[in-house]
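Weekly structure sync - notes
Attendees: PM, LS, DV (DV joined late)
Agenda: review two folding runs queued last week.

Item 1: First target. Sequence and structure tokens pasted below for the record.
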Amino acid sequence: MAAYQTNAKNAAPNGVPTYVLEHAPLLYLHSKDPYRPSSIAAQLTNTHPEVNFKPIAVPNPPLRLDRLDQLNNVGGENVYLTSNEDATTNPAWLEGQKTYGNEDDKTGVVVVVDKGEGVVDAFYFYFWAFNWGGIVLGKQLGDHVGDWEHNMIRFINGVPKYIWLSQHSNGEAFTFEALTKDASGKRPLIFASTGSHALYAIPGTHDHTIPNFNLDVPLLLIDETDKGSLYDPLTTSYFYRYNPTTSTFTPYNATDPTAFLYFKGRWGDAEYPADDPRQKDKGLLGFKKYGGGPTGVGDKYVHPISISNK
């Protein structure tokens, strides 16, 4: 299998539960997807904040991960981290990282949530600078700058029991045993679809025309997965504890930033107006060629997974 290049020095800090690392997913990236996991920090250097399509002043410039939450006071949920370049020209930074070598190359976030009574939910987040939505009935739909995807593994007394895979606005839950593992027999293999990066348990074609229901026969809205290069997110992620009672994130590595986890805005451009030339396909079935950027980690850590704490 082809290995997606990483740097071993970017290892998990002390204190992260061993089982969270031993059973962390490995992601197969689609062989034909030009968009790769992206530096979270680089998203800030290549964008600027806007509200209602107008740039806003940064209280304490430049934008950095350790003070991104300052934008909550100057626009909050209405802030969009907007590309400095026209995203439709496909600037090189949208294609993400090819290799890794320093602290600025972090492309993911791991969040450990101790829910008590032996139940621990570990969330593995992955970031892409761009989401390519795909072609439907000859129209390109669903593109947007910025793309956060994640999966969650529920551990009970240190044993992995269930796993959640995000897919567009929702996802799928499985028993941990149901997924194929790597050679160690411990790490589940997950497949990121080309362009949209929705996560699936098997390679192949996945139809999501009907929300929250995957059809066996391709119909209209389709994701494709295959065994392309293998991406190990552990070597390129930040690691945090999350306290549900106080709604706070604490880094396992004290020097890692936390402010970006509290940012309430969007990690990409706002959806372009219908009369914008970039929306040339004029949409289909309620979808536009370009949608708005996604919210971040702080908006996704609690998930409606349909299993009890037990």
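Item 2: Second target, run right after the first with the same settings.
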Amino acid sequence: MDVTQTMPAALTAGPAQYSEGTRNGDAVISSDFETFLKMLTAQMENQDPMNPIESSDYAVQLATFSGVEQQVRTNDLLDGLGTKLGLMGLSDIAGWVGMEARVAAPVLFDQTPVTLVPAPATGADETRLVVKNADGAIVENKIIPTSTDPIEWAGVDESGTPFPRGVYTFELVSSGNGRHLSTDAVQAYSKITESQNADGKLWLILESGQKIAADTVSAIREP
């Protein structure tokens, strides 16, 4: 039986068409294809001449190998595409520098009001804003409306004297029926001073010096 007459043309091609490439994926594909051909040849040589293997079986084996080959090449393509998208993303968020990002992170207070966006816990009937300075000391602890509406934090004490210029953090303590429900960081608007691409992620540097992942930003606005 002339097997080459019934086998797909790809099986009769020499392995030279699959030369080793410069990438690891190409080298693996080349090596695996040579092994695949050796196994296929051994299978053909040792088949039962009274019950030869159907050409369709060879086609199935080739299709299986081709599927693996394409998956390896696809993975390599996606890796390269991911790097390119990362660079494109950095180019996009470069325009954010100088704008204000809404994020749960420490804020530099320069004695101008800071916009806060509280998010009360479900079932809360009382919310309390807790403000801490850079040393972690509480400088303000007051009840605020139980709402998701933005509020302006003036940054002044009970006598109306502004707090010192510095970095402050904001927490929202939610209570319901007299019971503590949660304590959560409050999102605030903070100026962006720099954008970075590091470790495969996009990062933003805030005016406070805080480094945050770009995907944690929930809103952007003009200062």
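Discussion on item 2: The domain at 97-221 is CATH 2.60.40.4070 (Immunoglobulin-like).
Action: LS to circulate a short write-up before next sync.
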